[in-house]
Amino acid sequence: MKLHLTEMTKDLTITIPLRKRDFDLAKKLSQQHEHSQKQQQIYLNTLSRCAIHSYCQYLDIETNFDELFLENNRTDYFTDYFMDVSDLTLKGWGKVECRAILPDSEFCYIPPEAFSDRIGYFIIEIDAENWQANILDFLAQVTQSEIDLSQLHRNPQTFLEVLSLLDILKQLNQQLEENQPSVNVQNLVNSSLGKIQESVEDLTLWLNNILGEQLPDVLANAINFLDQKTNLIQLQQWFSGVFSNGWQPEKRALTLSIQPDRNLQPANIEQPEVNGAKVIRLGMQIPQETVILILRQKQLSEAEIEVNLRLYPSAEAMYLPDGVKLSVLDETGNPIPELEAQARADNWLQLKFTGEPGDQFSVKVSLEESSITENFLL
Prior knowledge:
This protein has helices at about 20-30, 35-60, 65-70, 75-80, 160-180, 185-195, 200-210, 215-230, 250-255; strands at about 5-10, 10-15, 85-90, 95-100, 105-110, 120-125, 130-140, 145-150, 235, 250, 275-280, 290-300, 305-315, 325-330, 335-340, 350-355, 360-365, 370-375. By secondary structure, it is α+β, with helices and mostly antiparallel strands. A 6-stranded mixed β-sheet has the order 1-2-7-6-4-3. Strands 9-18-17-14-15 form a 5-stranded mixed β-sheet, with no helix packed on it. Helix 1 (about 20-30) packs antiparallel against helix 2 and helix 5 (about 160-180) runs antiparallel to helix 6. The longest helix is centred in the first third of the chain and has 23 residues, at about 35-60.
């Protein structure tokens, strides 16, 4: 099968050849109905599904076409009879609506029952005389039953852009579930969002159509995930002397922020070790409470890294603020019970654990309603 791309001024049409078996199937199914209007509807709907199935085959996208039209599996007969839906399931992606029009049509009708549970809507001109179907456009979402064909952007390639965004959302969802950062996600999202719709409002409507009530949670999780990814501190970079996000080499930070006579127990130089420190300000009062967070990482072996966290008061205080809490969070953001410590007239707190290269964790320092969270990658 050959697809033909025809450029008409700024319009782009994808032409799909229709085969004899497509017309035979459409005729057979339409003749199961008595009313001529219903026969015409089933005839065109079947041809539109045949066309999109052929297009998807060309793109190596599997559909439910064979299951839909198997001789002994016409489970949607009553749907066809009582409703005017013409959907096709793209396996792994979702449903598309295949709406057929004739060459002299001015409008395309989309029934209200097809307004939801669709990733988009193909508008297909059935040119039976020339044994072909012309894909005029792909709409990511619709809000009315009558589509004025003169207002179409006539860009069926939008379908591929929608699949691209869906693929990104699937990757993002998988990463949210596994809490594994991906370097390319944010760039992919930024480069693809603008291609899908002409405005943020249209994109929001389309996402809401797909995700429904889950949309706010998905977007919130995605924003939180990308924010964490952006602020993720790569601890391996410390071995190369690269510090970021307010972190400094321990010696430099402590000469400015901690009392010189405080016992910090020097690092063990028998194994590769690198240490960083950060000044953290907490509390709702002014001036805020200041503490020093120190992170020491020691390479025990190629597969094991020891992390030693310490929290100290600043040079102006003898003790840590009463009630200040030091916690380690797992990859899902939940506190690890055995890795929590709270100050009670202490002059320092310590937590120690081991991990593997590639492990992700967070450290939370909190005082009353105020907290700071640092995200790390071993």
